[in-house]
Structures are given as structure tokens and as C-alpha cells.
Design goal:
Oligomer: single chain
Number of domains: 1
Distance between the termini: 28 Å
Number of helices: 1
Order of helices and strands: HEEE
Bound molecules: zinc ion
């Protein structure tokens, strides 16, 4: 299970909430930002994988929705 950010459920209807959860799951599937700590390659993948450049396993995975705005 992936940890999810705090849900603003006080302002969303159950249907909106469901859509919100879906879009986050969708974003997670398609936008995993990967950073190799060995060779410092950076790429975006649909799922966490070893480094394509050096095949290193020491990868930092950052889900794109975790990037702060601005
Ligand atoms: Zn690498």
C-alpha cells in the first residue's frame, strides 16, 4: 500500500473524493520520478525500476505529486 497525502475530505463530496483518489493512483502509476544515487541519472518511469544507465539499485523514487508547486 502506498501512503497517501492527507485527504481534504471535509470539502469534497464522496464522489469527488473517489475521483481525487483515482487521479492520485493514476499519477503514481505514470509519474514516478527516479533519481540514481550512483550515477545521478534522472528519469520518469511508470514504475520503480533499477537505473537504466548504470543498473544501480540505489534509486530514489519520488512520486510527482509530492513535488511542491513553485
Ligand atoms: Zn545509475
Amino acid at each position: 500500500m502506498m501512503a497517501e497525502p492527507a485527504t481534504p475530505d471535509s470539502v469534497l463530496t464522496p464522489e469527488e473524493l473517489q475521483t481525487w483518489h483515482r487521479s492520485i493512483a493514476e499519477a503514481n502509476r505514470h509519474n514516478v520520478f527516479c533519481h540514481c544515487r550512483q550515477c545521478h541519472s534522472e528519469w520518469v518511469a511508470s514504475s520503480p525500476k533499477p537505473c537504466l544507465a548504470c543498473e544501480g539499485q540505489d534509486i530514489e523514487f519520488i512520486l510527482c505529486w509530492q513535488f511542491p508547486d513553485g
